[in-house]
Design goal:
two-stranded antiparallel sheet; disordered C terminus; Rossmann fold; four-stranded parallel beta sheet
Length: about 130
């Protein structure tokens, strides 16, 4: 009896299991529907709002700095806020990347607290 050739399981899409929302007006040509198409092609679900089920929020710097409704919701649900560059990296490499571009810290200086945004831009390949 002939044996069947072992078949490789198809590689998982880099964003399988992720649910991603978007916030802000992106550069020309990057519409919400274009983002949705890119995300779903990588295996992610697209969400129109941020909830406890959301795994990432892609936001513009302007939306992040203005603490938009979606950015506030992301903070409330401990959802990482990433840039469009994160999606570009996932798409280009075919891998899931943890990229932190927006980091808020509160510093104490001269007798007052100040909310500061730092662009630290580190990468870690997650899958």
């Amino acid at each position: 009896m002939a044996r069947k050739a072992a078949q490789k399981a198809p590689a998982a899409s880099p964003l399988d299991g992720c649910t991603v929302a978007a916030s802000g007006r992106f550069p020309s040509g990057v519409t919400q529907s274009a983002l949705q198409a890119r995300l779903t092609s990588l295996g992610a679900a697209f969400a129109s709002s941020v909830s406890a089920d959301t795994t990432h929020l892609i936001a513009t710097e302007k939306d992040f700095e203005s603490n938009s409704t979606k950015v506030k919701a992301a903070a409330a649900h401990n959802v990482p806020v990433v840039t469009l560059h994160w999606l570009d990296e996932c798409e280009t490499t075919g891998k899931f990347w943890i990229i932190c571009f927006f980091l808020r810290i509160v510093i104490y200086a001269s007798g007052c607290y100040k909310d500061v945004q730092i662009d630290i831009g580190y990468r870690f390949q997650g899958r």
